[in-house]
Design brief:
mainly alpha, globular, single chain, two-stranded antiparallel sheet, about 0% strand
């Protein structure tokens, strides 16, 4: 298996293709984070996941088709850095290496954080050693991703998606039937966070506070980050044709709505179900309480508790395996081969890929053990950094033919730096203390960071030379559905 087989695999049918990127997105967000956030903050978190759905509708309806067409015109496009190289005909490879380094670095950190959190959850809930758990999980994922490549993810995606959806529905129904609607409402009123059930289930409230316009912007904008996930975007490079995307899009949107509704219901019910446990802001503590409560309900409850832990494990695994696939593909194809660091002997591709997979898997494991205790908010910051760098750059490269490689480079760099800068740089004096721009605006760093990226891309592209006729001609051809 060469790198193209690892990255593209055998052509997936409509059903498999629909769930390949979808399960990567909904696994960790819909099966783990959404129930926890609804349990913690109430129904106001709905706006954040509405943003994800809106974002993915846009990606599937617009970006997916064009990315597929570029891959059809240039068969060697298998990664986003490869797309940037071919889109702007960068013969020097600088753009490709810049994008690859950025994606690789951020993806390694994200996988490490996910692996660390999974180990902590299984340690607190089941008493497993967190280090051994993280090592075993990473070792197993590295084996089947390294040996089978994208095919292992394609074939298993529908099964994972259906299992997670049915498990969430089963947990929701079980908790509801076990406690009863009247007792659940009474318990929710006693949780002492929002003061009333009506506030908790009101989507105009978040964490017990009335939402303001800037809050809607912040919550919905978090969903935009999905459009900057490399694994989601790179799956369009393996699409058969436009019909494949159209059919898969319909399946995806229906499934995502069902999945998020089920996840939100499970999270809402869990607050009343877990009473009298105090509300916790720890993801691992939340699942520990949930597991313990289920285990107390006899044999049927123990079965549900087992399913809960399988659900949590699978949710994290889907995100880790997709990210690891991106890491290996980008490192092998764009940095090692693109940078001509080593010469790959014929017939040795599988061995090289497997070795690189295990090296990067163990690197992620080592980093996960060095980062200490981190909150889920740290993961969101790194996802935001990756999303705000990739999403505006890919979008502009697909809609603006005047954009050149210098604008692309600028968008990648500014997107990378703007999230931490706008979020943490305390450059302003407000109410007697120094605060960041995001603090003054009352929004998270996603919207201002993306706006800065867009502006920088436009400015740098206009100040530098126009792209040559080959680049513009290919852009026009792709825009018109490859008619020539």
């Amino acid at each position: 298996m060469d790198i193209y087989g690892f990255a593209k695999g055998k052509r997936a049918n409509y059903f498999e293709f629909a769930f390949l990127s979808t399960v990567f997105i909904v696994g960790i967000t819909g099966a783990a984070i959404l129930p926890f956030y609804v349990y913690l903050f109430g129904a106001g978190i709905f706006w954040e996941f509405l943003g994800i759905i809106i974002c993915l509708v846009f990606v599937w309806n617009y970006e997916g088709y064009k990315l597929m067409r570029y891959a059809r015109k240039n068969s060697d496009i298998i990664t986003l850095p490869g797309f940037f190289k071919n889109r702007f005909k960068d013969s020097c490879e600088y753009l490709r290496l810049l994008a690859a380094t950025e994606i690789l670095t951020l993806s390694v950190v994200i996988v490490s954080i996910l692996l660390r959190e999974l180990g902590v959850i299984y340690s607190k809930v089941l008493g497993f050693d967190s280090q051994n758990t993280a090592f075993v999980v990473m070792f197993i994922i590295a084996f089947y991703v390294g040996w089978f490549g994208i095919n292992s993810l394609i074939k298993s995606a529908p099964l994972k998606a259906v299992f997670m959806l049915l498990t969430i529905i089963a947990l929701f129904v079980y908790a509801f039937v076990t406690v009863g609607s009247r007792q659940l409402i009474r318990n929710m009123m006693l949780t002492d966070i929002t003061g009333s059930v009506s506030e908790y289930v009101n989507i105009l409230f978040h964490d017990g506070n009335l939402l303001y316009p800037e809050d809607y912007i912040s919550l919905i904008s978090m969903g935009i980050l999905a459009s900057g996930m490399p694994f989601l975007l790179s799956t369009f490079f393996i699409s058969k044709n436009s019909r494949s995307i159209t059919v898969s899009k319909q399946i995806t949107i229906i499934f995502m709505i069902l999945f998020y509704v089920a996840g939100a219901c499970m999270g809402g019910i869990s607050r009343g179900y877990l009473y009298p446990e105090k509300i916790t802001r720890s993801l691992s503590e939340y699942f520990k309480f949930f597991y313990s409560r289920l285990s107390e309900d006899g044999d049927s409850g123990k079965i549900m508790a087992t399913l809960l832990m399988l659900l949590v494990g699978l949710a994290f695994v889907t995100a880790i395996e997709g990210s690891l696939h991106v890491i290996v593909t980008v490192l092998f194809n764009d940095i090692i081969m693109g940078g001509k660091l080593i010469r790959i002997k014929n017939g040795r591709d599988r061995l090289y890929i497997l070795c690189i997979t295990y090296i990067m898997a163990m690197l992620c494991f080592v980093i996960s053990q060095c980062i200490g205790n981190v909150s889920i908010n740290v993961l969101v910051v790194f996802l935001g950094t990756l999303g705000c760098s990739i999403a505006p750059t890919v979008f502009m490269s697909l809609v603006w033919k005047r954009m050149n490689k210098y604008g692309c480079m600028a968008g990648l760099v500014i997107g990378l730096l703007s999230v931490p800068f706008l979020k943490y740089a305390q450059l302003f004096q407000f109410s007697g203390k120094k605060v960041s721009l995001c603090d003054i605006l009352g929004v998270n760093s996603v919207v201002p960071s993306m706006l800065v990226s867009f502006l920088v891309i436009i400015l740098v592209s206009l100040l530098t030379g126009k792209p040559d006729e080959t680049v513009v001609g290919e852009f026009t051809d792709v825009e018109h559905r490859i008619t020539n």
